[in-house]
Design goal:
Blueprint: H1 12-21, E1 26-29, H2 36-43, E2 47-52, H3 55-66, H4 74-85, H5 93-101, H6 107-124, H7 130-143, E3 178-182, H8 185-188, E4 195-200, H9 209-212, H10 214-221, E5 227-228, E6 233-234, H11 252-262, E7 265-273, H12 280-288, E8 294-302, H13 305-309, E9 326-334, H14 337-344
Parallel strand pairs: 1-2, 1-4, 2-3, 4-7
Antiparallel strand pairs: 5-6, 7-9, 8-9
The protein binds S-adenosylmethionine.
S-adenosylmethionine binds near residues 4, 6, 33 and 209.
Length: about 350
């Protein structure tokens, strides 16, 4: 799984238990990111719909949630990965922009990423394994990157892992299936079928996923965009179309209240953070507007490594202030009375 800001690695077990205790069969993971939570709902026997604006997140959802592990021939997948891995290196966009202009990957791995990414389109363009192969490439690239997990800057000296050769490995697929939708949560929510449990994990503050993970966006879209600045971000990062209402202090409260109200689910579970733009009492009020009792769970967690270390410039100098070591993850559960009781007694 790729390194991802706000990934719910530590909460996933608790969210899965909640899904099971609610007796749920259908799920919605509205800001799905890495799809960890949707995968867990599938492991609990659910059919889960994933929604996110990011192209890489859609591919992860097609791989981990839509693709049923039971329907994949492991030997065929291994053969495809070996074939891609044996392609001769090719100097393309990744090498030029992300290894020479910027230093996200060592050039020895850059030429391999370029060759494999072209190979996926040339050899597996319409193949049902395409999202699985793309995910294998994203994860392989993530294992040899030279960042602290955000693509706004890179390390001055190569991270030791960046000097290791890129290796493709088969993603650990999940049993069961679901749906992957790419788009704005606020626009999509009214169009979705009702579900038993909806999980909402929006961005909390100004940190934009589109810029923090622009390398993954480009690797999936493969559109060789114009770029700017030392981080070589995509020029469309400047467009309003790539901005999220959930990243602005001015718009987040209305956007969040809107999706919490509009989501059609028996049980709605909302994640937020004590460092987010919306204070807890306002969030509780938004959830209470659904008409069910609201339970607030709080988890004391270690902050994301990139935030703990601070922000580094391209020359490796620290240019930002490191944040506190820990923060609190809130999980608000709005459930009808009988489900609420089952959850409390789980
Ligand atoms: C906190 S992360 C979710 C992390 C996820 N739960 C996980 O465990 O990996 C927030 C996600 O919201 C997505 N996002 C931002 N604005 C959005 C919008 N308007 N509609 C849908 N997704 C959005 C981002 O791309 C990001 O993946």
């Amino acid at each position: 799984m790729i390194k991802y800001l706000g990934s719910k690695r530590r909460l996933v077990g608790e969210l899965g238990r909640l899904f099971a205790a609610a007796g749920a069969h259908t799920g919605l993971d509205l800001f799905t990111g890495t799809t960890r939570v949707a995968q867990e709902f599938n492991r609990q026997g659910g059919f889960t719909t994933c929604v996110d604006t990011a192209a890489y997140s859609e591919v992860l959802a097609q791989c981990y949630v839509v693709t049923d592990a039971a329907a994949v021939d492991a030997a065929e997948l291994a053969e495809a990965l070996a074939r891609l891995e044996s392609l001769p290196g090719r100097r393309g966009y990744v090498t030029e922009v992300f290894c020479e202009q910027a230093r996200y990957f060592h050039p020895d791995n850059g030429v391999r990423i370029d060759a494999i990414r072209d190979g996926i389109d040339e050899l597996y363009g319409d193949h049902r394994l395409r999202p699985v192969l793309l995910t294998a490439l994203l994860e392989a690239a993530d294992r040899v990157d030279s960042t602290v997990g955000l693509q706004m800057a890179y390390l001055k000296e190569w991270a030791p892992r960046a000097l290791r050769p890129l290796r493709l490995t088969a993603p650990a697929l999940t049993a069961g299936t679901g749906r992957a939708l790419r788009g704005d949560a606020a626009a999509l929510v009214p169009t979705l079928e009702p579900v038993d449990v909806a999980y909402l994990d929006p961005p909390y503050n100004q940190h934009r996923y589109f810029t923090n993970y622009h390398v993954w966006e480009t690797l999936v879209r493969w559109d060789a965009p114009e770029y700017y600045g030392v981080a070589c971000k995509r020029v469309d990062a400047r467009d309003d179309t790539t901005r999220s209402a959930f990243n602005s202090k001015r718009t987040i409260a209305a956007a969040l209240a809107g999706v919490i109200e509009a989501v059609r689910a028996d049980t709605a579970v909302v994640s937020f953070n004590n460092e987010g733009f919306v204070p807890l009492p306002a969030l509780v009020e938004m959830c209470e507007a659904r008409g069910h009792p609201v339970e607030v769970l709080a988890f004391d967690t270690r902050r994301y490594i990139g935030q703990r270390l601070g922000v580094f410039g391209p020359d490796g100098r620290k240019v930002g202030v490191p944040g506190p070591e820990r923060n609190i993850e809130y999980v608000l559960v709005s459930a009808p009375e009988p489900v609420g009781e089952a959850l409390i007694n789980r």
